[in-house]
Amino acid sequence: MTSVERRFSRKVEGAKLIHKVMVESPAMRKYKVRFNPLKIPGCHHLDLLSDEYWTCLAYHYTLTIYHPVGTAKMGPDSDPMAVVDPRLKVRGTGNKMSPILQ
Fold first, then answer.
1. Three-state SS letters, the chain
2. pTM of the full structure
């Protein structure tokens, strides 16, 4: 199995677990939570909820719901637009390293 296949396999297992929790847990049943049965374009030919469908869904419809990422400019203290210095210390925070890099 390639590294890509392993990553997709993990995504499929995660999607199945989330689906199970959403459909079968007492808390979700209380609020009558249901799975949206609309198929994603490109995956419509596959059986809904099959491993093949989840793999196709992960391939064609992977996105973030919130917290999109961005970039921060690196540069010397003389650059007013730089956020981190060349040693990845965040400017103006007393030499703290970026939490993403820790």
1. CCHHHHHHHHHHHHHHHHHHHHHHCHHHHHCCCCCCCCCCCCCCCCCCCCHHHHHHHHHHCCCCCCCCCCCCCECCCCCCCCCECCCCEECCCCCCECHHHC
2. 0.55
- Do 9 and 49 reside in the same domain of the chain? yes
Average pLDDT over residues 20-43: 87
pLDDT at residue 52 tops 90: yes
CA distance 23 to 28: 7
Domain containing 55 equals 3-60
Least Cα distance to 84 among 102, 96, 70 occurs for 96
Give the Cα separation of 84 and 90 in Å (integer). Answer: 4
Distance CA 84, CA 72 (A): 7
Count of domains for the chain: 2
